[in-house]
Design goal:
Chain A is mainly β. Chain A is built from two helices and 32 strands. Chain A has a domain at 40-197. Chain A has helices at residues 2-11, 33-38, and strands at residues 18-32, 42-44, 54-57, 60-65, 69-74, 82-88, 95-98, 101-106, 109-114, 122-127, 154-167, 206-207, 213-216, 219-223, 227-232, 240-246, 251-257, 260-265, 268-273, 282-288, 296-298, 302-307, 319-324, 332-338, 345-348, 351-355, 361-365, 373-378, 383-389, 392-397, 400-405, 413-417.
Chain lengths: 418, 198
């Protein structure tokens, strides 16, 4: 037995484990940036597949399809909304509207559109790499907003993916492979110059509470992962980068109210004053809470924060927090309400609308913040965003866009689904 | 799993005692082989335990085996065992072949080394070798064997390092569904076993 054991030890060196790693390897498909940009424009209406962000401007709803573009919906009759066109914007996540101008991101670029004809939206200007957090075709050193030559830059527009199996050493570790940039991605001078234009219509579209873009007067405010950037849009088709201030890590949303900005982050709400220096927001106060995902809205007296336990935010709470903001420097929690998994919210007068994920849309009478009264609940689908104004609540759900008529609080009813 | 093993052990003991009372005059005779083994390979040395229960006919034996195998990842092999003895002497050589499935059953320590969303799936198990049987009474025997053992385990996990477009984690948490990667462990070992046959 001992000799057998010895034999085993001696020849076991011939025994090698065969360990392989199988994964998908993707090879990028490139397109020159100038050609890529030519395709950023209106296309015929397309079915809504995945709903993203929401902006309401007059009789039109702009509904984003994450990373693909924006659907334009004619909502002249909320009972019969019509999907009339699709603006192709690869890499789009957010938007804001003022007058006939739409501002939208395309990966790291800010694109300015003329939407005076919603069926024929035209890109008027590209501000390159102003959102470095989302840039995929610029070198890290490219200065935000700097002029570039779009003919010298390649953009990844697709991937050829195939399964690959390689020998693997479990002890060797695996390191991330980032396809952050592409060959020949060089910033260059002489960007195409946008034609100056005037836009006297200063009406601003209403964004949902999960928006990361916001407009107050002549400034567009956007939030990145950790900062708040400002663009001067006094020349609507020539947004000019103004400033960036650091906020906190993992910034999520921005909400405008008169001369204040409310920024939601994983750790709390940050309130900025833009009264005296709209191009450089000044921190006026903050309210911290447990770690969670947290869209925020506000009125003159209170901020309404929904906390949810999405895994990406590593949180555990699912509740509505109401914070007294009469003195921004000394805000404090008034009351919290347990909810299922609240996300988007909106407020019209004393009526508070909360999207509570699988629990659907909850509508409260919030005239007394210490005693919210549930008026109505709709469990149509997984709801996550709402804009309520003029008696119509527009709700984004997992399976489309719903509209509810709340002009009569005793008869709140579903008007349509798209 | 512990309950299953305990139940299988009790069934085996009951079957052994019952079968041994009846077997004396039948051409097919119930046999139970219980092995303690050493596994030696690139990963290092590990132990294994096996119980194989079946029927012997002349110089042939066929049975079903269940074991526990600690090499690299703890697994439970469930296999068919066929063996052939040579010669008429009381002490004689034999060859054996085992093939079946290796069920993954990681220890708590092994689980701690991996992400909670890792999944270890079952794979092929095989063991082939030669041995020598030494009779220790009418039906009992001591057996030693040397063989080649193989087990396969597949680990599947989310591909954390893949490239994605930026994901908005507020509104679209459900899209955060990365593709899967796999690590296939084909583990080659030499094994030496000492066993007792009833």
């Amino acid at each position: 037995m001992l000799s057998l054991s010895g034999l085993v030890f001696l020849i076991s060196g011939c025994m090698k484990d065969k360990i392989t790693r199988t994964y998908k390897i993707s090879t990028p498909i490139y397109e020159v940036l100038s050609s890529f940009r030519e395709k950023i424009k209106s296309q015929p209406a397309a079915p809504v597949e995945t709903t993203g962000k929401l902006s309401v401007m007059g009789k039109y709803i702009f509904l984003s399809e994450p990373y693909k573009g924006i659907h334009v919906i004619d909502n002249s009759n909320p009972a019969i909304p019509k999907n009339i066109s699709f603006i192709n914007i690869p890499g789009n996540e957010d938007m804001a509207i003022r007058g006939n101008t739409l501002y939208a991101d395309a990966y790291g670029d800010l694109v300015t559109f003329d939407i005076s004809d919603p069926k024929n939206v035209i890109a008027k200007n590209f501000a390159a790499n102003v959102f470095p957090d989302h840039s995929i075709y610029f070198y890290a050193g490219t200065i935000p907003g700097a002029a570039i030559n779009p003919d010298s830059i390649n953009v990844i527009v697709g991937w050829i993916t195939k399964d690959t199996t390689v020998d693997y050493d479990p002890g060797g570790g695996v390191y991330p492979v980032f396809y952050n940039n592409c060959p020949n991605c060089m910033a260059a001078a002489n960007a195409m110059a946008p034609a100056p234009s005037a836009d006297n219509n200063s009406k601003v579209g209403t964004n949902g509470s999960t928006a990361r873009f916001s407009i107050i007067d002549n400034f567009l405010y956007t939030v990145g992962y950790s900062n708040l950037s400002t663009f001067d849009i006094s020349k609507p088709w020539q947004p000019a980068y103004s400033s960036t201030v650091q906020v906190d890590w993992h910034v999520e949303t921005i909400y405008p109210l008169k001369d204040k900005l409310f920024v939601g982050t994983n750790n709390g709400m940050y309130m900025y004053d833009i009264q005296n220096s709209p191009g450089t927001p000044k921190l006026a106060g903050s309210f911290t809470h447990v770690r969670a995902c947290d869209p925020v809205i506000a009125d003159d007296n209170y901020a309404y924060i929904t906390l949810n336990d999405s895994s990406a935010c590593l949180g555990f709470n699912n509740e509505l927090q109401i914070v007294d903001i009469k003195d921004l420097a000394n805000s404090f929690e008034v009351k919290s309400y347990q909810l299922s998994h609240p996300i988007g919210l909106s407020k019209d007068g004393n009526i508070l609308f909360i999207c509570d994920w699988k629990e659907g849309l909850k509508i409260y009478n919030a005239s007394d913040v210490n005693n919210l009264q549930l008026l109505k609940q709709f469990k149509d689908d997984v709801d996550y965003e709402v804009v309520a104004e003029n008696g119509i609540a527009i709700v984004l759900a997992g399976d489309g866009l719903y509209q509810y008529d709340y002009s009569d609080l005793n008869d709140i009813r579903l008007l349509s689904k798209l | 799993m512990k309950r299953i093993l305990l139940a299988l052990g009790m069934i085996s003991i009951a079957a052994i005692s019952s079968a041994q009372q009846k077997e004396a005059s039948k051409p097919w005779q119930f046999r139970s082989i219980n092995n303690l083994g050493l596994l030696e390979g690139e990963t290092g040395s590990s132990f294994q335990l096996q119980t194989i229960n079946g029927a012997a006919y002349k110089s042939w034996f066929a049975g079903i085996g269940l074991g526990i195998d600690y090499y690299r990842y703890r697994t439970i092999p469930l296999f068919a065992d066929v063996r052939k003895e040579f010669g008429q002497a009381k002490n004689k050589p034999f060859v054996y072949s085992d093939m079946g499935i290796s069920f993954s059953w990681l220890t708590d320590n092994q689980k701690m080394n991996y992400r909670t969303d890792d999944h270890f799936s079952n794979g092929f198990y095989g063991d082939w070798g030669v041995g020598y049987k030494m009779a220790m009474g009418k039906n009992d025997a001591l057996m030693i064997s040397l063989g080649y053992s193989y087990k396969k385990i597949t680990e599947t996990y989310p591909s954390y390092f893949a490239w994605y477009p930026p994901i908005d984690d507020i509104t679209r948490p459900q899209v955060n569904n990365p593709p899967k990667e796999q690590i296939n462990y084909g583990l080659n070992r030499l094994t030496i076993k000492i066993g007792w046959q009833f």
